[in-house]
């Protein structure tokens, strides 16, 4: 993997713990659970190293914070609104860019329900302040930022939100969030909002008229749209309303595991037909399959292969949705807020304490690449699914200051 320009920075080290903020003992960034690495031959090891060095590696959905060691403190930890990014673990992840989804619905600084405007801005501003005090992670606002991060041995941070609930009925709040650096937003989380319906709702009425306006505004601003947690009709309406390709940043195939958290074939196909991409999800107890009801790396990759066969390799990527800490424990703490029961599906499954081989950001992409190598995927196809497909969509969706507002002849001169 490309060695990143990491110099030992720890989150908020410019402040004094216990004086400037309440200190919590945090989990280990690596080694919390037994490590697992897919073994390769010497030649395969060299190939894996080259693939990481020569290609952009992008996670379409993750949470790069470090959870507190004592999960009984988690709600208090959240109320302080000061997530600590796992810089050391991130530096070893092989990633060149990560779509980081912050606290999102668990930003409960002023509210027990989450998704409040003030809380989202507090959370976002706090993370960006920390990033501004170090130099390994850079803010990813354009595709050029991502490419330059790779070139300079840094990692681009793309601020993302899993739902648009916090904009309420204020369309201009999308502009404000864009100004704060947000470049990817979901329509709804599990619960419905003013834009549309989430996967938890029994009656999905699709995008509201306000939701259609919001989709059009996101297109104009250059915010990538995500439908991972949206209900089926809301998802399809979003795909059809958007003038640009959209993302399913973190999900899998419902055909393999009957859960509302995963997407039916026709939505995955509709997304791909408009040029979009689905990122395969790895959070505990999501991408299981009928063949493998125990969640592991192979069941996760079974979802990848199913989607690749369904819509083609050009429309699949990875959004592992992992973090540093006890992920299963956090799900138990936030079972109600995160609608965990709605995500698990109707079949019985074997609960795991962690997902072996893809438990945290440090081991996720190294094992994804190693798995693809052992299954005989070509360099070209691996390059597409670990970053190339995402960049193709971003080049079309994100605002490009070099070409915006110029004619075709002028555009040639700016390239």
TrEMBL record:
Concerning InterPro entries, the annotation shows: Metal_Hydrolase (IPR032466), Pept_M19 (IPR008257)
Which Gene Ontology BP annotations are present? Answer: proteolysis
Instruction: Please state the span of the N-terminal signal peptide per the UniProt entry.
Output: none
Which species?
Brevibacillus reuszeri
Q: Record's SUPFAM superfamilies?
A: Metallo-dependent hydrolases
Tell me the GO molecular function terms. Answer: metallodipeptidase activity
Its name, as the record gives it, is Diguanylate cyclase
The highest taxon in the source lineage is Bacteria
